[in-house]
């Protein structure tokens, strides 16, 4: 199968996984939010940074190194496996003994047991990280989807059962852990690769030299990305953190869904094109425009309908989360573009530059956090939007050094899409306002139909629109 067919085929299966499986998880979280309330989700928000740190440490960036290594063999896989397992045990031990201090910081004693149980996921994930990396490298996305299906279905079933029976925060923890355990077991049962005894110091050095910079970049990103939860959890009521945490997660779902599909499929594809920069640049540009064509109206449309949407799906107690959700939508629509630019750096092995950029960008975030904190939670949320825009400018500048696609060209490609998405937002927002005396379902239905019709109709008049690229791919299966 050719590279382009592998990419399109992989995108189709990744989309199916995102639509049905991640959609199922998303619906489960909506139900749990109705049953549990803001406090339980506030507790999860408090430990998000520590889970993120542990995940970055355990992977160490070596899975990305495996994917980009063209001639990776059993020695590579075995070495990375043993290293991941060793690090996971060390990280879990650190989190186990740190749990009381974290609980004391937030003044929430229940966090001791929550952290000690939830962090077992580090060891579970490390157990199957190499198997997943091999499937990604070989672009076997159908297999990944079929393995993910039972793991997510079983995990969701367990989580919903516990949530319905008032197990509180443990419902959320058990849902995630069950899914990961089932996936790991299935990967080991069905996978052809098993670790040998061939641990190689040379292979370790090779993958670690690339991976540790990715790991440090991930650590920086995790710490600063979750710094909002730390500040809100420390200085504001736990309900406020619960509202922010759900607004952020629900806001991230569509953007990370699209980013995840495109990132998972395009990273191995771009890695195979690293010796053909003109073709890589051409495909990259088309993918970026199509991604923004989808994500910009989606996020702005959801922001326009946020109030009736939250009230209908989550209930009145979650309406205070609406302003956070609307502001965060501005940053979320840039997530796929960030991912594309970062993938270019990884494809060309520039993990050193990747790390330097993270340090540079986080200096802006620190300043934005200090200023934003002076204006309360809303100020903190707006600071995230500001840093996202600045980070995008930095990412595009340095990725353009590797491919012929400058920052100016990227922004000019996105500008017309953004303008039309902005007009769609205004149309949907004011339709919700005009029909505010009607039911939530009526408001959402009218706004959605108007938004979709207007956006696609306007785009259909422009031959240069990404809409035509998307239709061409669907019809002819050509990038």
Automatic annotation (TrEMBL):
**Where is the signal peptide, in residue numbers?**
none
- One Pfam family recorded for the sequence: Polysacc_synt_3
Compartment(s): Cell membrane
**Key words, A-Z:** Cell membrane, Membrane, Transmembrane, Transmembrane helix
Q: Does the keyword Protein transport apply?
A: no
Superkingdom of origin: Bacteria
* Annotated membrane topology: Multi-pass membrane protein
Which parts pass through the membrane?
Answer: 12-33, 39-58, 79-104, 110-134, 146-164, 170-191, 287-304, 324-344, 364-394, 414-432, 444-462
Q: Which PANTHER family match?
A: LIPOPOLYSACCHARIDE BIOSYNTHESIS PROTEIN WZXC, PST FAMILY PREDICTED COLANIC ACID TRANSPORTER
Q: Which family does it belong to?
A: Belongs to the polysaccharide synthase family.
Q: What is this protein called?
A: Lipopolysaccharide biosynthesis protein
Q: Which organism is it from?
A: Maribacter arenosus
